[in-house]
Amino acid sequence: MVIYDPASSVLPKTFISLLIITGLVLTMNGQEFTIEEATIREIQQAFADNKLTSRQLVDFYLNRIQELNPVLRGVVEVNPDARDLADEADREKQSNGGSLGDLHGIPLLVKDTIGTKDKMNTTAGSYALIGSEVARDAGVVERLRKAGAVILGKASLSEWYRIRSINGVPNGWCARSGQGVNPYITSGSPCGSSSGSAISVAANMVAVSLGTETHSSIICPSDHNSVVGLKPTIGLTSRAGVIPCAPRWDTIGPICRTVEDAVYVLDVIAGFDPRDDEATREGSQFIPEGGYKQFLKNEGLKGKRLGVVRSPFVDKLHDSAIAASFEDHLSTLRKRGAIVVDNLHIANIDEILDPHRSGELMVMATDFKISLNAYLKELITSPVRSLTDIITFNQNNPELEKLAEYGQQTFIEAEESTGIGEKEIQVLENLEKLSKEGFEKLMKENDLDALVTPGSRASPILAIGGYPAITVPAGYDSDGMPFGICFGGLRGTEPKLVEIAYGFEQATKVRRPPCFSTSELSEKASV
Q1: I need a surface site. Which of 162, 242, 375, 426 has the fewest CB within 10 A?
Q2: Short-list 140, 357, 165, 173, CA closest to 251
Q3: pLDDT at 404
Q4: Mean of all residue pLDDT scores within the chain
Q5: If DSSP states are collapsed to H, E and C, what string results for 50-108?
Q6: Could you say which DSSP state residue 6 is in?
Q7: Which of 384, 28, 61 is nearest to 208 (CA)?
Q8: What is the enclosing helix (H) or strand (E) of 34?
Q9: pLDDT tens for residues 428-483?
Q10: Which one of the listed residues 9, 209, 217, 371 is annotated catalytic?
Q11: What is the percent of the chain where pLDDT is above 70?
């Protein structure tokens, strides 16, 4: 990991130690404002009032990373040019006399599978890709840079999206940064694969982040780390320049602390990309004129029809606190004008939720081999050029990749696949049938705007159909572990989902930041 030197900061080192715990406190409009938990809108107001610069904000986050990341391991590496980029953003603001957009000067982490044409690596958390060079920025990174965002660094993840060994690699573990830690309860799972993106935003090591999802990889870590995660419709955001998992189901989306911030990011990264032509040409047709901010409505729940499938999403909850909170939230939804359609059922739900039984995992492994090999061949330089090379690298470097402990069984199964054949086509046809006769039928027959579920267990339903979803912090279980409420809809229904999620968030506002102390950090860092 690139280590940031606090001695070179514009802030005194002794003061920085205090800031890590208490946050940088400013006074704006007669009220105190702290960097911790600050929203994009609040940060932009601080910029406009000359109370804060992008450079100061970047310095704060870099020092926060240095203090917390040895314990939480949410960041793989920081951008050595981040402070220079912040300085440039400040100069642009000064020369233009004000704001240049919602993300201008805002520090942002991207998952370590999203390519950046700079001094950072793009490795999927693996040592196998250290030193590889991408040809250009990923499509979403191009959009972020154009909007003036500061790419602060790369977030950690479940290595290779956990597809290295589905049953072996723990959620949040990668060779380069180690085991990601949930900032709320260190013994709890951070979930994956976009674990570092969620950990870092939750712990205020960055303002906002980008994750990727194929099968629950935005929704689950966001749910487990008490942040907002938005999984867009497939093709709404470009996958070009992103290390692939299964392109037919891959999507890129924001992980933030508020629905509003997630929408600000989505407005920037959504759109057509000729390098991801087919998917984004179709997906971009869903983007509303004027973008998504117009759907941030306090009364967004009014008149919305929300479906509840109790079996298995509610009936099998293991924590009574979550079950009670979910019922309270349903009551809140009703009070805010939503129509809750309860006790619904999805056909063949048990098959849909089991990726082994449905065949989803088999197709994913086949897609991974094909798409990864194509990605590796396009790199300017790389120590590996195929999945075979990666398997060999892992075998030859067990001390780096922890081969003996976690293995690479799914890699080997993927390597043995021979492409999309008759068996895979049958699986894909069945998955499409399961979607149409299950989730789509449920939504259309009941005229629903969204499916509402506690936690992230509905992710397989949303994955196989390329459907969008957004999860919002909803509370904490009896042990203090966070959980969220997930709203999922049909393709292209992000406007409705934003209205619903924002309305719910404004009605509840249950998110709280994790608590740290210097003694706890020192103790955990020494373990």
Answers
A1: 426
A2: 140
A3: 81
A4: 93
A5: CCCCHHHHHHHHHHHHHHHHHHHCCEEEECCCHHHHHHHHHHHHHHHCCCCCCCCCCEE
A6: G
A7: 61
A8: strand 31-34
A9: 999 999 999 999 999 999 999 999 999 999 999 999 999 999 999 999 999 999 99
A10: 217
A11: 92
Architecture of the domain whose range is 15-300+355-422+457-526: Alpha-Beta Complex (3.90)
CA 98/CA 267 separation, integer angstroms: 20
Q: Which of 214, 221, 303 is nearest to 256 (CA)?
A: 221
| 386 labelled catalytic | no
Which residues are CB-neighbours of 270 under 8 A, at least 6 positions away? 232, 236, 237, 283, 284, 287, 292
pLDDT at 22: 45
Per-residue CA distances from 435 to 68, 260, 293, 347 (Å) = 42, 30, 29, 9
Cα separations in angstroms, 126 against 57, 173, 210, 298, 410? 30, 10, 19, 43, 15
Mean pLDDT across 329-353: 98
Distance CA 63, CA 8 (A): 11
Assess whether 193 carries a catalytic annotation: yes
Catalytic residue among 156, 189, 193, 197: 193
HEC profile of 191-250:
CCCCHHHHHHHHCCCCCEEEEEECCCCCHHHHHHCCCEEEECCCCCECCCCECCCCCCCC
Residue 442 corresponds to which amino acid? L
The residue annotated as part of the active site, out of 9, 93, 111, 496, is 111
